[in-house]
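Let's study a protein:

___
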Amino acid sequence: MGTEKKKEREKEKEDEEMEKKEGKEKEGKKKKKKRKKKKKKKKKKKKKKKKKKKKKRKKKKKKKKKKKKKKKKKKKQQQQKKKKRRRRKRNKRGRGEKEEDEEEGGGKEWERAGRGRSRGGRRGRRGGGAPRDKNISF
């Protein structure tokens, strides 16, 4: 009786070991499959990241365009200010030339005709009077 029980126990142990081995092999195969799936998921994630980068670039371009526009506006405004300042200075210079006019013969009657660029054109300050005064005779 004792020897039969021992044989049965040994058989059961062997069976259990065999089952464990088979189970391990099966589990190993399953693990390999899981790894493959993980790799595929990673590839998908990379594609999504690329799309996000493209969107960011578009936003950056818009920002750059806005900055350029602002810079251009500022430059224009500054140039206009400079022009105004210069114009004022020229006109002021023109107003202080009454003595030269009197020497030429235009005199104080024609002071209104051309003081500086605002009324007399570009050649207004040459020779004391604006070009309009030169043709007028009394």
